[in-house]
Design goal:
Length: about 375
């Protein structure tokens, strides 16, 4: 009996013997866009095994510029890091300086600030309510979102003179009093926008494709929320029931407890984050109307304090934080008694929120990456500041 001779062949497979992972760069995009984010993904086939957000492409050193500007000028720097929330950004700075000075703001200014902060919240949220479905292939909602934004932009532009960077806050109050008849026009705009907000429920939440792309996708646990310092609608979408307007009231929020509603969801997925954003927009319109009602009851009076020509904060330090549209925005102010801050550290919401992607993306499919990234509702300038 004869044995058939066998031949063994060794095939060289090079680096594939160690790993079949592939590194994929998402971005950075064209340099003329409003800031870029790069995601470094490690893939195993279609599944993401590791994700690293690479930031800092548009870092402008705002915190160092704060140190070379006086307390009037830094307001201009502060309102630009989140260009969708300019009024709210200014607010944190002036609240910190007023706290250092021990300054009381006139009552009308307090209620006006609260009103404008809520209108600014609606403007911010409408952008994401329109752009997020667009990223998933639904073009129609953004047209509705921009129509509602324009109606509110008109009243914000009329009162402040600016479309995006309002520069309406001042240390001690606001720049100036309201134009004649402005509150009636603001009330009409709020009423009109609210009457059409149900379109987003019908167009987006009622769309089975949108729900299929977002339900159960990108689940962020409450533990991860706390670990990364995530805040705002993203944290509340994971069941973390925290809102500075209710839990550490500032401005007039302490008197609006019966109107203010902290919206939460337990699922922690992309759909839950969108639902939180949408319902929070409804509530911001309710709060704006409540502020208009209160302003109508107040007697005429000043909206700011008279300040010295050279404003100096006393030596010391303080921390002021606000519930910005995207989450917690904090300013740590250190003064040496000069007319400029010795140090002003900015804690922006988007910076912390985007770090959670390192925990959120691994284990998901590349196809779901856009849905997850869009549901984080960030502004790149707010990351890089």
């Amino acid at each position: 009996m004869f044995m058939t001779p066998t031949t063994e062949t060794m095939v060289g497979i090079g680096g594939a013997a160690e790993s079949t992972d592939m590194v994929l760069n998402i971005g950075p995009q064209h340099p003329s866009t409003h800031g870029v984010l790069r995601l470094k993904l490690v893939l195993d086939g279609e599944r993401i095994t590791r994700a690293e957000p690479v930031i800092g492409y548009m870092h402008r050193g705002a915190e160092k510029l704060f140190e070379a500007r006086d307390y009037r000028q830094i307001i201009m720097l502060a309102n630009r890091h989140d260009w969708l929330s300019a009024f709210s950004n200014e607010l944190g700075v002036v609240l910190a300086v007023e706290r250092m000075l021990g300054m009381e703001v006139p009552e009308r200014a307090v209620w006006l600030r609260t009103l404008l902060a809520e209108l600014n919240r609606v403007l911010n949220h409408l952008m994401f309510l329109g752009s997020y479905p667009l990223e998933l292939g639904g073009i129609t909602p953004i047209f509705y979102a921009f129509r509602e934004r324009e109606e509110l932009q008109h009243v914000m532009e009329e009162v402040s003179g600016g479309r995006m960077h309002y520069m309406f806050n001042r240390v001690g109050g606001l720049k100036e009093d309201l134009p004649a008849g402005w509150t009636a026009r603001a009330r009409a705009a709020v009423t009109d926008v609210r009457s059409r907000m149900d379109r987003f429920d019908d167009l987006v939440l009622g769309n089975e494709i949108f729900r299929g792309r977002t339900r159960g996708v990108g689940v962020l646990s409450p533990e991860a929320v706390h670990a990364y310092g995530v805040s705002g609608p993203i944290a509340r979408g994971s069941g973390v029931d925290f809102d500075l307007r209710r839990d550490e009231p500032y401005l007039a929020y302490g008197e609006l407890g019966d109107v203010l509603k902290v919206v939460t969801r337990e699922e922690g997925d992309c759909l839950a984050r969108f639902e939180c954003l949408l319902e929070q927009t409804h509530n911001a319109l309710d709060l704006a109307e409540a502020c208009l009602d209160r302003l109508a009851e107040l007697p005429p009076g000043p909206v700011n304090q008279r300040l010295p020509k050279v404003l100096k904060a006393p030596e010391g330090h303080t921390y002021a934080w606000t519930e910005n549209p995207l989450g917690i925005n904090g300013y740590y102010l250190v003064s040496k008694g000069e007319k400029t801050p010795y140090r002003l550290k900015l804690r922006s919401a988007s910076y912390n929120n985007i770090q959670a992607l390192t925990e959120l993306l691994p284990g998901t499919l590349v196809a779901d990456m856009v849905a997850i990234l869009g549901s984080m509702f960030f502004v790149v300038g707010d990351i890089d500041k």
